[in-house]
Amino acid sequence: MITQKPFAKTLDGRQVTAYTLHDGEAYATVLDFGGTLQSLVVPDKKGRLTDVVLGYPDVTRYERNSGYLGALIGRYGNRIAEGHVNIEGKTYELYCNDRGNHLHGGKTGFNRKFWNAEVRGDELVLTLLSPDGEEFYPGNLQVEVIYTFQNRELKIRYRAVTDKTTVVNLTNHAYFNMNGESNGSILDNYLCINSKIVIPTNETMIPTGGFRGVAGTPFDFTQPKEIGRDIEMYDIDLENGNGYDHCFVLDKKLGEYGLCAVAESRRSGIRMTCFTDAPCVQFYAGNGLHQEGKHNYYGKRAGFCLETEMIPNNVNSREYSVYGSSYLRPGEVYSYTAAYRFDTIG
Fold first, then answer.
1. Is-contact 39 21, C-beta < 8 A?
2. Active-site positions?
3. Count of the separate structural domains present in the chain
């Protein structure tokens, strides 16, 4: 069942609606502003309902683009080096908003758009038209994102088509904390990532080419470990990201729907298992968090992100594009799914 109610008004007076997807006593709330996952409430090991997603209690802070909390990201999630992208022989100069690079769609990304919302049974269907030339991208891009929450699994299905060749890399920027969104840092959350390869970056977080095996490095999450165990070790890639903010290539066939990651709290007993048919996941440990949240202040590493996606900047790297290209042409359909399944341990 999906219910809806007014959430708040934007600074220019537009009404934001909150849609709540019910699954027994558990529920997820999504806003039509930014397609934002505003809360995700599941029972802990003692049956206490716990919100595991960071967010804001009002629209103003979402409008200010503070941390992209819970938002749908596009047209291009993550970074494109210096905003340069070559499409069919023409170089497009995208808006640069992060250390001289294009990040998360530019100046006004999908996280700050009103999405058209429709309830279809147990599906919340969000649609958006990104017009030709928006943020200097070519093509009219029609985007559809479908949220469902059933059997303790939040599923997000992404779909897009274009009338001109363009580039697309959609994702969701939810920050999770398995202890609860207002219950301290995520450094004691255990994490396992289904990956043996991480992408190295430069000091502006642009992939530099090549691949790095995780074995024997702080990036080895092939077995569950606390996020905080190795995060302060000296490592050039950790230093560039001020902690974990890196793309992991998933250990599965290209296009195959399978395991992405598992996160859990020994305190709350809440476990989240992520699945996707995307080739990669960006693990971000919330190194830059510094804002007031729904109930408490969110400090550094109060939440972590698992952003399913293509390798950042793959549009400028052939070796990365073989793991999934972000180019989308007329007649093609961009389509993939991410799911976050919850249960309890101990």
1. no
2. 173, 307
3. 1
